[in-house]
Amino acid sequence: MTPPAATRLRPLPLAAGIALLAASLLAGLLVGAAGLPASGVLKALADAVPGVHLHTGLSEVQRSVLFDLRLPRVLLAALVGGMLALAGAGYQGVFRNPLADPYLLGAAAGAGVGATLVIVSVPGDPAVAVPVAAFVGAIGGVLLAYALGSVAGRGDGAGTATLVLAGVAVSSFLAAIQTFLQQLKTDELQRVYSWILGGVGAADWRGLGLVVPYAAVSTLVLLPHGRLLDVLAVGEEEASALGVSAVRVRLTVLVAASLATASAVALSGLIGFVGVVVPHVVRRLAGSSYRVVLPLSLLGGAAFLTLVDLLARTVVAPGELPLGVVTAFVGGPFFVAVLRATRGPVRT
């Protein structure tokens, strides 16, 4: 297997990713049913910095729209998109499979089961317990899919075809469990279905505060592993010769990527295809080294889902489309294109 080019992240692609994210965040803040002036928004954001005092020109209603509605929503969309794309890139590095993502490997379905179990069984507001339950479910879903793929591959590990099929099987099984849990508590169906369809319309500062620590930990673990994933891409024997423990690296990345998935799914619900689309585009534009793919996937995923959320809340205004529906429109054809591009001999 030819290793990816061992390049460092160059300043130009990094600056382009940051600029794209900044532009998408600003668009998300400005566009909506209540129009906000760009200068007033920028001054209000600067005025929120301690020690800075500016006359923003915004009314109290406009300030409330900005800080209570749009800003937490835009930040949550960026966080969810960044975590899903980062997790997808991490899974692809671990399994050396460009089709791997949180949904195909059962992580999101497992997180959904964990979150649904808390929603239907914990009285009151279970917001604190949902991310923990989603994390446990995400880990269980990925391990089950990989174990099933390894068994189907006769103990030689999961190749592209076997891993995808195992992920589909595990996701279907977990979806059945989730449906069963919903039927046990039919009075919570509306709440569960709203969560399943995916969206960030209910974003608030409290929810952001609950998931930011999970997202921060997973990001701080995954980004430094780019070089080690590049080494693993050469092969396990070569990695061992260089003193790299393939088992340790894979386990660490697997846990961190599942934590990233859980932090995203816990508040946003099920939003598919981000983990396939964004890393693949990054590879096409910036190279295949994971020292490049991981950080640019984080930035690109954040920008992508912010723009998707902007589209979802404006295209049928005053109504709103679920984010999962919009990403499926984009990601479905894209996934087929990636699948066709990866055809060939498959290791099973």
From TrEMBL:
It comes from Actinomadura rubteroloni. CDD domains: TM_ABC_iron-siderophores_like (cd06550). GO terms for molecular function: transmembrane transporter activity. GO terms for cellular component: plasma membrane. The chain crosses the membrane at residues 72-91, 103-122, 128-149, 161-181, 253-278, 290-311, 323-342. The lineage of its organism: Bacteria, Bacillati, Actinomycetota, Actinomycetes, Streptosporangiales. It is found in: Cell membrane. Pfam families: FecCD. Keywords: Cell membrane, Membrane, Transmembrane, Transmembrane helix, Transport. The gene is hmuU_2. It is a multi-pass membrane protein. This is Hemin transport system permease protein HmuU. Its main location: membrane. Belongs to the binding-protein-dependent transport system permease family. FecCD subfamily.
